[in-house]
Fold this protein.
Amino acid sequence: MIVSLLIIGILFVLVITTYNRLIRLRNNAREGWSGIDVQLKRRADLVPNLVTTVKGYATHERQLLEEITNLRNQSLLGQTVPDQAKTASELGRSLKRLMFIAEAYPDLKADGNFLKLQQQLSEIEDYLQKSRRYYNGTVRELNIKIESFPSNIIARIFGFAKFDFFALSDESDRMVPEINLS
């Protein structure tokens, strides 16, 4: 009888500790996503100012500016993690193209507002990269716990689901963007 109660007690403690660990990991992943979301919104908020500044100098780059504006609007919509990652990658590529095009306009490159926007974009991209790493690390830990025995049993009982990684959809996204501030 005492042995049975001891085994039940140990199992009960195991379930509670595993459940609490899964809760902590899930909340860390949500916090990580929140960090990405904040940086994506900061970048989206910067885009209209950047487009307006470039528009004054590069009037014949209209198609790219419209593409950036459309991607910016799309990035503000509620999306799944893979969809958000795809949109973020496309917006990042378009912004890189915009920075390369800006090199052809000496007056634009010298514009104080444009330089400030470039600096802000560079900082946001750095924070975004750090947020992606944190998020993916917390998702990795959560997913391992959800898939590992015996925590997978507890995860299944309490309805814990794996999170998606914030994966880069294009190999060129793995390259560090070059932003010339001179």
In short: The chain has a mean pLDDT of 86. The CA atoms of residues 85 and 168 lie 7 Å apart. The longest helix spans residues 2-57. The chain has one domain: 2-162.
